[in-house]
Amino acid sequence: MLIGLLATPALAETRYVSDQLEIPLRSGTSTQHRIIRMLDSGTPLEVLEVNADAGYSRVRAPSGVEGWVLSRLLMDIPSARDRLARAEKKLAELQAAERERLENLSNLKSEKGSLEGKLSALLEENSRLKQELMEIRRTASSSLAIAEENKELKNRMLQMEREQQRLAQENEALSDRTKRDWFMVGAGVIIVGIILGLILPRIRVKKRSSWDTL
User: Fold this and answer.
1) Which CATH class is domain 2-78?
2) Which positions are tagged coiled coil (predicted)?
């Protein structure tokens, strides 16, 4: 009863087993009490009450088992071994993240170099296409000029053919008129000849008759 009265309830808080490899969890507040189990270093324990006179604390392990351990073997922070392990794990994670970052940076640099190469190739291709476009435009301009000149020449040839046809028609009409004029002249000559052929004999007859009367 005295031990029970001296044991003072404590607010539930977490303590850690010290850096010793193992400590006993007992059923009471003395070394005479039975050991319930051994607790590994760094095991988090929930402190239920503290017996300052006996130097023991009643705790609850993560598995739910309750018992008493020496208060001086408990620490407010995790053990150095656990903290070192956590620090090493954190360091390993940081190193892995750094390696991943460096690898990503290397990949980005490689990708950047590839993109710069592609950009250079695209710029060269763009320059070549511009030159080809200028050449095509010059060729197209020359072709258009030639086509326009050919069109003009065709128009002139068409006009000349029309003029030639007109001159041929006029020449044919003139030839027909000339033939008609010559025909008329010939006809007139024939008619004049006929008239002369009719008149001249009479004139001769009259002259003879007049000579005969003399």
Assistant:
1) mainly beta
2) 70-180
